[in-house]
C-alpha cells in the first residue's frame, strides 16, 4: 500500500517539531528533491524548473555533493534552497544516535543549511530531538510521489498528486537514477497543471 499522503494519525508517531506542510492562504506549493545531486538528472530538473519560473528545495546527500560539487553549486546559483539528507543516506531507525548525528554533521560541512530531511522519512525521536537542539529544522512532506518505484502506476500517482496537493503542501520527488523515468513525466505534469491553476512554486526558507 502506498501512502501518497501521510495520515494524521501516522504523523502523531513523529516528534511535534517535524514540519509536514507550510500553512498558506496563497496558492503556493513546495517542490522538494531528495538524494542528489546526480549527474544529468539534477541538471535536467534545474532546466525544467527554470522553464516554469519555479523554485524548489534540494535535500542533498553529502557524498553526492562531494562527487558533484559543480551541480550543487548550480542549484544555489539558480536561486534554489538546499537541505541536509545525511552524508551516507542513513536509515535513522537502523542507526544509533551518535552515528546518525555525526553523519548529519559531516554532511553539513558540505551542505550549508539547517534544513534536514531524514532519508526514507525514518528518524527516531531521540535523533530528532538532538537535531532540533542543534538548530536543524526537520522537513518531511505532504505528498510522496513514489517516483522511485519502478512498478509505479503513473496515472494513479498523478491522480494522488492532484488530489492531495493544496496550498502550502510539500511534495517529494527524487533526483536519482531509479526515479528518472517516472520523474520526467510526473514533474512536468505537476509544473504545467498547477501553474495553469494559478499556483506558484517556492523554495522552503525558514
Record keyword descriptors for this entry.
206 residues, alpha/beta, two-stranded parallel ribbon, 8 helices
Description:
The protein has 206 residues and is of the alpha/beta class. It is 38% helix and 14% strand. The chain is built from 8 helices and 8 strands. Strands 1, 2, 3, 6, 7 and 8 form a 6-stranded parallel β-sheet that branches. A two-stranded parallel sheet has the order 4-5. The longest helix has 17 residues, at 180-196. The chain starts with 7 loop residues before the first helix and ends in a 5-residue tail after the last strand. The relative contact order is 0.23.
Outline the secondary-structure elements.
Layout: H1 8-11, E1 28-34, H2 41-51, E2 56-60, H3 62-67, H4 69-77, E3 81-84, H5 97-108, E4 115-116, H6 125-133, E5 137-138, E6 143-144, H7 154-164, E7 170-174, H8 180-196, E8 200-201
Parallel strand pairs: 1-2, 1-7, 1-8, 2-3, 4-5, 6-7
Helix pairs in contact: 7-8
Amino acid at each position: 500500500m502506498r501512502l501518497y499522503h501521510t495520515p494524521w494519525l501516522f504523523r502523531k508517531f513523529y516528534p511535534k517539531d517535524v514540519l509536514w506542510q507550510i500553512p498558506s492562504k496563497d496558492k503556493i506549493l513546495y517542490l522538494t528533491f531528495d538524494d542528489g545531486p546526480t549527474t544529468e538528472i539534477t541538471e535536467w530538473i534545474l532546466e525544467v524548473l527554470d522553464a516554469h519560473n519555479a523554485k524548489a528545495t534540494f535535500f542533498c546527500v553529502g557524498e553526492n555533493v562531494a562527487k558533484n560539487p559543480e551541480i550543487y553549486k548550480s542549484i544555489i546559483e539558480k536561486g534554489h534552497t538546499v537541505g541536509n539528507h545525511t552524508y551516507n543516506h542513513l536509515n535513522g531507525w537502523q542507526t544509533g544516535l551518535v552515528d546518525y548525528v555525526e553523519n548529519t554533521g559531516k554532511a553539513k560541512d558540505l551542505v550549508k543549511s539547517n534544513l534536514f530531511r531524514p532519508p526514507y522519512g525514518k528518524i527516531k525521536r531521540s535523533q530528532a530531538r538532538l537535531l532540533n537542539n542543534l538548530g536543524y529544522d526537520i522537513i518531511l512532506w505532504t505528498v510522496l510521489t513514489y517516483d522511485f518505484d519502478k512498478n509505479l502506476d503513473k496515472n494513479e500517482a498523478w491522480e494522488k498528486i492532484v488530489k492531495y496537493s493544496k496550498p502550502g503542501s510539500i511534495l517529494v520527488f527524487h533526483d536519482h537514477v531509479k526515479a528518472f523515468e517516472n520523474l520526467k513525466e510526473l514533474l512536468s505534469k505537476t509544473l504545467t497543471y498547477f501553474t495553469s491553476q494559478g499556483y506558484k512554486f517556492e523554495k522552503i526558507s525558514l
